[in-house]
Amino acid sequence: MSRPELTGHASLFYNAKEARKYNSSSRMVGVQREITERAIELLRLPEDRPSFVLDVGCGSGLSGQVLEEKGHAWVGCDVSRDMLNVANERIKENMLERSEAAASGGIDMDDDDDEDDDSKYDDSPTKPFTGDLMHHDMGTGLPFRPATFDACVSISALQWLCYSNAKGQIPKKRLTRFFSSLYQVLRRGARAVLQFYPETAEQAILISECAAKVGFAGGIVVDYPNSTKAKKHYLVLSFDRAYKAPSGLDAMDGALLSSASAQTGVRVEQARGKRGGPPRKGKGGTKTKEWIVHKKETQRKKGKAVKTDTKYTGRKRPARF
Amino acid sequence: MRLLTHNTLRNNSAAANGKGFPLRIKAAEIRVDENKDDDDDEMQIAFVKGVLGMLDWSILVQGASEMGLSTLPPALTDEMANDPTFMRALYHVLMNVHLVRGILVCPDTGREFPVTDGIANFMLEEDECEHVRM
């Protein structure tokens, strides 16, 4: 799958079959979860109370589920009715679990459905579902009263606005309409984080420009810029003109997304004084400790999972008999 | 679609001229969830206090009555806002009363937005949309 946006309208790509596949692929679920967690982190929501969040392009409700687990209430919009139906099914299952748990009065056994992958993430009794779903096209503007939402989140959806799929659809017009309505429906002091996949640099620029033109401050945070697979773009928008977007994650300090540090719980060490050039391939070649350490650095920069450097790294192994 | 969401919705087509709310509810099927005892009361109250500023009380009273709930007071006083029992009850009204099937009608244009299986349909045609200055 290269770019689904090139195949046609989002609701045609995310049909019933595709929607089911999307929601049941554990890799997809995992990736979308991580992205949502990162987006929520960038939102910097208040800790003392739940927020009312708008989820644009909520799809099958994967991001909404993460919002729920953190205790927030949300309203999700999506252009694909099939994806929304899948999200609805999860909500109904959730409600059934809760009423069964209440009836039995005990701990409900987690039913490990293919699509219900949240059981291993949620230790507490199933939280009440706090999301509402709307069948809606973000390019037509958001149908809410002004200053309604505490925050907005959007996962892997915004780039769909860059392609026209019907007569009279002009990407720039739809993007502007979306951003200007977003500006209206957010409360003052609110923030929006929209993760998207730009096909080209021009697209990323077009998106930023449309957002800036309606009055937003902010910028694009890029995580793992050196890895084609792990690279993620987050458009972070705020009303605060003094706002500066934080620098993106790099494999060296990405505590959340780097599985190496997640395993050990320790920050991956930086090789001081050895950055810039690879050690000369003189004597020893690729067997020397310097080379090995440098190679591991490069791999980390690419966002790959690499074991931490310890005193055993590149040690002389006992001779084979 | 719960009453909290209904409170925020408007018809954003060009014909509504910037208004398009409050949407009238023609309810065909309603569902009320129970407020469980183990749910976090403090967080619920904190949430309600947080959204109180953006809620339109008259829309809420009208919406609730169209959904069969006529027990809300016509105006919100400070006393009520500081009463935890009232806040908990308000949380229940906002979050647990769902329109499963029905129609939302724009008071300015009469445009209808159907709700099926709890999902509200707000798909607009391109020519219905507001004009954009680029």
Describe this structure in words.
The complex is a heterodimer of chains A (321) and B (134). By secondary structure, chain A is α/β, with parallel strands linked by helices. Helices cover 34% and strands 15% of the residues of chain A. Chain A has helices at residues 10-13, 16-24, 26-43, 62-69, 81-104, 171-185, 201-213, 259-264, 289-301, and strands at residues 52-56, 73-78, 131-135, 149-155, 186-196, 217-223, 232-238. Chain A is globular. With 134 residues, chain B is α+β, with helices and mostly antiparallel strands. Chain B is 34% helix and 19% strand. In chain B, a hairpin with a 2-residue loop joins strand 3 and strand 4. In chain B, helix 2 crosses helix 5. At the A-B interface, strand 2, helix 5, strand 3 and helix 6 of A face helix 1, helix 2 and strand 4 of B. Strand 3 (131-135) of chain A pairs parallel with strand 4 (119-121) of chain B.
N to C succession of SSEs of chain B: HEHHHHEEE
Average pLDDT across residues of chain B?
92
Task: Give me the Rg of chain A, rounded.
Answer: 22 Å
Number of helices of chain B: 5
Oligomer: heterodimer
What characteristic shape of chain B results from the CA principal axes? globular
Compressed to H and E, one letter per element, the order of chain A equals HHHEHEHEEHEHEEHH
Q: Helicity of chain A, in percent?
A: 25-40%
- The poorly predicted ranges of chain B are none
* N- to C-terminal distance of chain A: 49 Å
Which sequence of strands runs across the widest sheet of chain A? 3-2-1-4-5-7-6
Overall pLDDT metric of chain A: 81
Keywords for this entry:
heterodimer, A: 321 residues, alpha/beta, B: 134 residues, alpha+beta, 4-stranded antiparallel sheet, 5 helices, 4 strands, globular
Note the topology:
The complex is a heterodimer of chains A (321) and B (134).
Chain A: H1 10-13, H2 16-24, H3 26-43, E1 52-56, H4 62-69, E2 73-78, H5 81-104, E3 131-135, E4 149-155, H6 171-185, E5 186-196, H7 201-213, E6 217-223, E7 232-238, H8 259-264, H9 289-301
Helix pairs in contact in A: 2-5, 3-4, 6-7
Chain B: H1 3-8, E1 24-32, H2 41-52, H3 57-66, H4 78-81, H5 84-96, E2 97-105, E3 112-116, E4 119-121
Antiparallel strand pairs in B: 1-2, 2-3, 3-4
Helix pairs in contact in B: 2-5
